[in-house]
Amino acid sequence: MCENMGGTFEWTLGLRFVAALAVGFLVGLEREASRRENKPFFFGGVRTYPILSLFGFGCAWLFERGVTLMLPAGLLAVAAVIGVAYVEKIRSGRHGATSEVSALLTFTTGALAMLADVRLAMALGVVNTLLLSEKSTLEHYVEKLDRADFLATIKFLLVTVVIYPVLPDTDFTVYRINPAKVWQVVVLVSAIGFGGYLLTRKLGPRVGLALSGLMGGIVSSTAVSVATGRIARANPEQARAALQASLLASSVMYVRLFVLIVVFGGALAGRVGNVLLGLAGVGLALALTVRPPAGTTRPAQTPVMQNPVEIRVALVFALLFVGLRVATGLARARLGVEGVFCLSALAGLVDVDPFVLSVAQNPQSVTIAAAAIVVAVMVNTLAKGVYFAFLSREGRPAALTRYGIWAVLHALVLLVAAYQA
Fold first, then answer.
1. What residues contact 65, with CB distance under 8 A and at least 6 apart?
2. Segments in 265-335 forming alpha helices (H)
3. Using the 8-state DSSP alphabet, how is residue 95 labeled?
4. What are the backbone dihedrals phi and psi of residue 86, each rounded to the nearest 5 degrees, phi first?
5. Cα angle vertex 261, ends 402, 171, to 5°?
6. What is the number of other CB atoms lying within 10 angstroms of the CB of residue 220?
7. pLDDT one-digit tens code per residue, 290-332
8. Are 192 and 305 in contact (CB under 8 A)?
9. What is the Cα–Cα distance from 343 to 320, expressed in whole angstroms?
10. Residue 102 contacts by C-beta under 8 Å, 6 or more apart in sequence?
11. Exposure of 262 by Cβ count < 10 A (0-12 exposed, 13-18 middle, 19+ buried)?
């Protein structure tokens, strides 16, 4: 190892050679260990793979010195040898091309050790070895893989990786609608909901209604209230456990909103953060006052959540966010503070997240924005209590009492804020 005059590390030709040899040797060791198990035919081992890596290194060295055909010719030669070995492998009754493709990658890794950043070559070699050695673990995981979870993950990647980079990062209209920034909001909300969705799918049937409600609240507390209300209607003996899950999910909503406001709200987080966390604590206390009968905490039925990263769901959220941002601007300009509060109440009946984020990103008055958020969550909390009570006759009195108390505390917060102003 050596350093240049500036003190930065320099990969000399000798060190690159050693790196190519080491990477090939690492893969070869893994193949040799697998060869000893019970394979009648196996391509390469502890000698072949280092040689392949060094062959790639030598071809790349000649390529750099003007023999430009050497690198593609070397790759074709390796491919030809591997092709012959693969035909023999098929004749012996074995299938699969993992070792053969790994050999091609080892040649490429050796070439990269000469031509590119050595760290890339080393990373490829380590990942190559890891994938080869963890065959049984990966196959076991694939056998247990739920297709619905796999599709949910693909949709999440589509929302985050594919759509976001192609959106223009420019403000449009007088309301400064920036598609890239709008989609950033969609991605963050989808990511939070996606985590809760996976937890609910994986753990929901095993942890009972209470914890299912907590996890479901990360996705949508309104959806949990409707789902638990239906459970209570179908199974009256589960009414109290279902109500507790609904209250817990609603409590999580406040924490979720607090996180989103911290990320996007700036100064607003300090004004409304303590209020949201305090209301979350109230919801938790109300949930603890509901005592499900013994033996009813683990029902066969748990709330079913919709995947929050469905393209349709993400687009609806984006449209709601943009629409509410424009509507908030119009209400503020034409109707004043009263218009903003009316809009916040209407938003609470639909979906509180888009409204809260639209206000948090553009609060002309922190005081009015904080009050509007409290109004929105108050209406949303009342709505969830009504949803649950309408669906569950058995749990109706308890639901209306607890959600009513919770809503009254929202109103008290607004009165105190108005008095202090």
1. none
2. 267-288, 311-334
3. -
4. -70, -40
5. 135
6. 24
7. 876 655 445 445 555 555 556 666 677 677 767 767 776 776 6
8. no
9. 13
10. 27, 31, 49, 128, 132
11. middle
What pLDDT is recorded for position 60?
A: 92
Q: What is the DSSP letter of 393?
A: S
Residue 384, CB-side half-sphere exposure with 13 Å CA sphere: 33
CA atoms of 51 and 139, how far apart (whole Å): 30
pLDDT (tens digit per residue) in 345-359: 887 777 787 777 777
Which 3 state secondary structure label does DSSP give 3? Answer: strand
Q: Both tokens of residue 278? A: 């305090």
How far is it, in rounded angstroms, from Cα 30 to Cα 134? 10
Cβ-count burial of 23 within 10 angstroms (0-12 exposed, 13-18 middle, 19+ buried)? buried
Cβ neighbours for 309, distance < 8 A, ≥ 6 positions apart:
152, 155, 156, 158, 159, 190, 193, 194, 197
C-alpha torsion 12→17→19→25, nearest 10: -170
Q: How far apart are CA 121 and CA 217, in angstroms?
A: 44
Q: Is 96 exposed, middle or buried, given 0-12, 13-18 or 19+ CB atoms closer than 10 A?
A: exposed
